Each structure stands twice: as C-alpha cells, then as structure tokens.
C-alpha cells in the first residue's frame, strides 16, 4: 500500500535501546512497543524474516526465485532483505526481479522506473511482462470498457496468471511476494465477515500453489508489520515508489483495513493474534449454502452445466479436476475448463464488440480483437 507515513512512535531522546542497552533508542517498535536503536531494529526485523523462511522451509540451496517486484515499499524491502539474508546465511538462491506492467499510465510506468533502478542497486536481473503483450488489453483499456468498480477483480486475476507465465518463461517455479502481516490479517477479517469459510481456511498459508500449476507462491513477510516495513525502508533509505494505484482499491478490503487499523491502535499485537487465530481455526465439515435457483434445478441439470463462479472461473460441473488440466481456450494450466483470465477477457471482448456495434463505430477493431483472442496461444 503506497503512500503511507512512517509511523514508529517517537521515544524520549534519553532512552536506551532495550536490546543492546548501549545505543540510544530512536523508535518504539510497532509490533511490541519495545524501545530500539536502528541497528537492533534492523537485526530483529531481518532475523524474524529469516526465521519465517527457515521454519517454513521455503527455499533449498540452488533455488531460482522470482521476486514479484512492483516498485512499492513491500516488494522493494523484500528484494533488499532477501539479498541481505541470502548473503548472510548463504541460502544460495538465484534472485530475479519479475515485474508485471498492467498498463496504468501515470502509475505503473513510474513504479517500473523505480524497479529498473532497483535492478542496478541490488544487482538482480529484471524481467517485465505486460498485460498488453499477454492479453492484448492494458488495464487502462479494461477500465474504459468495464468500468472502475471491478478493476481489482480483473487486475488480480490477470496479474496472478502473468506472474506465473513470467516465472515459467524464466524457468523459475517459485515466486515470492511482499504480502505482509497486515494483508494477512485483513484477509482473515474479510473472509470471516463474509462467511467465506473456504477462503478463510487458506488465508494464512505461507506457501500456496494453484491446482495443476508448477509455480509456487510464498510470502516471507507473513509476520512482518506494514509499519515496520515502512520504517525499514525509511531508515535504510531504500528507493521505492509510493503512490496509490489510480484505480479504486477493493472496497471491502478497504473497510477491513480501517477496522484493523483501529484495532491495532488499541492493541498492536492484534495483527499477530488474528493471524494466529486464522492459522489455528479448525472448521467443521462444510455444508453448501445452496441458492434458491440451485435448489430448483434437477441434479442431472446441475452436473451437466458450466457454472460461472463469483471469481469469473468456470467449474467443471460434475467432472473431477485432473492435475495438468489445460484451459480449452489458451492452453494454460488451470483447475477449470476455461481459465479465469480467458473468461474475463471473453466478457470484455463481448462488451467491446457490443459497444462498437451499438455505436456502429470501430467494428473492425473489435472484430480484429475478437479474432486475436480466438487465436491466442501462449
Ligand atoms: N505489478 C506487479 N508486478 C510484480 N509483482 C507485483 C505487482 N503488483 C503486486 N505485486 C506483488 O504482490 C505484492 C502485493 O501487492 P499489492 O499491490 O497487493 O500490495 P502493496 O502493499 O501495494 O505492495 P508493494 O508495496 O510491494 O507495491 C507486492 O508486494 C508484489 O510482491
């Protein structure tokens, strides 16, 4: 989340660091309000991330790992800390920066300029994959066609696949992202408030892998507070981009974020406590909450039809998913008949064609795009 302030609480100049008892404390640590000097803060912050990595066995010597690099503070700090830990503890990782250019003028073009500087600062190779090249749509075009309200849905689905494709192109099967403890706790709250128990169960997993996909995802900042990431970037004078995305943030996540901030102000440990609760929830076997429409249908009808899920994917109906299943449209690995990205793109193409026919303008352009989509193979 770009644009945040440096929020470590100030301490009296006379106070000594509670860890080394030698240097002056310069901050109260957001996670536990401990008074710390800069050096001890760097040390506890980095050591906690090292412990997270080793406890979850995230890496093996020789692994090639792509860092999802947006140029924002989380992924910039992630690149910096991984470089430091890789050298300090001899992880023997080959680290690569992987950026997705969603095509958002005045936002992503500027943040990618930051990633290009990071490439030189951290001495890591950089690969940039653009939505326009992959999908023939930029986010600016998507928003002008589908509106701003669902922009996060499109962007999330397309980015997930773009990161996978970028990693596959580089021969890498592990992508790390800068999702932090606040993101995790927000997700737990959101899923709890929505009664989304399927997602709730998975919301605190550090290492994930979509069914059928060879690409793993992990979150080494799972236990790192956002405020501490900002402090680290600030004290280390890291070069990062801090502007909010031009398009609307996911509305409900924004509400969960505000709630979390209010809770954190009263009780800083609540972020860790929510993650702890998320990790230890034992849910009873699920009962489906059928809709009336679903209840009215015959069983045979339900098994035969393709159901469009809320996230835009299409279920395989009564058939079982087989590992290695491929999207019938683009051939990319997916757990569904048609991958989520293709479903969303097909909807966009229909909208664009409809708008064009209705207005009797640019029909050629829409037809050409539809044809391109039909021929898409990655
Ligand atoms: N365009 C992108 N290219 C590559 N990775 C990305 C991109 N956008 C997001 N990510 C990855 O997903 C993580 C979470 O992104 P999100 O936009 O939700 O949060 P953020 O707090 O703004 O992250 P950051 O501060 O790193 O921009 C990022 O830290 C990064 O690792």
TrEMBL record:
Residues annotated for ATP binding in this entry: 68-70, 74, 100, 178, 183
HAMAP family reported for this sequence: CTU1 (MF_03053)
One Gene Ontology cellular component: mitochondrion
Family: Belongs to the TtcA family. CTU1/NCS6/ATPBD3 subfamily.
Main location: cytoplasm
Protein name in the entry: Cytoplasmic tRNA 2-thiolation protein 1
Pfam family, one: zn-ribbon_14
Organism lineage string: Eukaryota, Fungi, Dikarya, Ascomycota, Saccharomycotina
GO terms of biological process kind: protein urmylation; tRNA wobble position uridine thiolation
């Amino acid at each position: 989340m770009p644009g945040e302030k440096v929020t470590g609480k100030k301490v009296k100049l006379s106070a000594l660091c509670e860890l080394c008892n030698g240097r002056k404390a310069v901050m109260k640590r957001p996670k536990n309000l401990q008074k710390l000097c800069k050096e001890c803060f760097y040390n506890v912050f980095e050591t906690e991330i090292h412990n997270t990595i080793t406890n979850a066995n995230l890496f093996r010597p020789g692994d090639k790992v792509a860092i999802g690099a947006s140029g924002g503070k989380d992924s910039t700090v992630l690149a910096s800390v991984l470089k430091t830990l890789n050298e300090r503890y001899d992880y023997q990782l080959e680290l690569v920066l992987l950026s997705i250019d969603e095509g958002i003028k005045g936002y992503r073009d500027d943040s990618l300029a930051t990633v290009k500087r990071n490439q030189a600062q951290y001495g890591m190779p950089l690969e940039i994959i653009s939505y326009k090249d992959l999908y023939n749509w930029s986010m600016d075009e998507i928003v002008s066609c589908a509106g701003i309200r669902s922009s996060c849905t499109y962007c999330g689905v397309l980015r997930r696949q773009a990161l996978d494709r970028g990693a596959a192109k580089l021969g890498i099967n592990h992508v790390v992202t800068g999702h932090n403890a606040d993101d995790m706790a927000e997700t737990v709250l959101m899923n709890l408030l929505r009664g989304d128990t399927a997602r709730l169960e998975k919301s605190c997993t550090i290492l994930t892998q979509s069914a059928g996909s060879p690409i793993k995802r992990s979150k080494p900042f799972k236990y790192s507070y956002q405020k501490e990431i900002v402090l680290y970037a600030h004290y280390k004078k890291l070069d990062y981009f801090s502007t909010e995305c031009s398009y609307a943030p996911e509305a409900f996540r924004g509400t969960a974020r505000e709630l979390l901030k209010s809770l954190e102000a009263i009780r800083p440990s609540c972020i860790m406590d929510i993650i702890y609760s998320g990790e230890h929830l034992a849910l009873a076997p699920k009962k489906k909450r059928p809709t009336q429409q679903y209840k009215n249908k015959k069983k045979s009808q339900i098994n035969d039809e393709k159901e469009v899920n809320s996230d835009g994917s299409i279920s395989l109906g009564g058939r079982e998913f087989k590992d290695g299943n491929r999207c019938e449209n683009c051939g990319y690995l997916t757990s569904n008949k048609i991958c989520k990205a293709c479903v969303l793109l097909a909807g966009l193409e229909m909208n664009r064609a409809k708008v064009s026919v209705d207005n009797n303008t640019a029909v050629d352009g829409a037809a050409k795009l539809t044809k391109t989509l039909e021929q898409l193979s990655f």
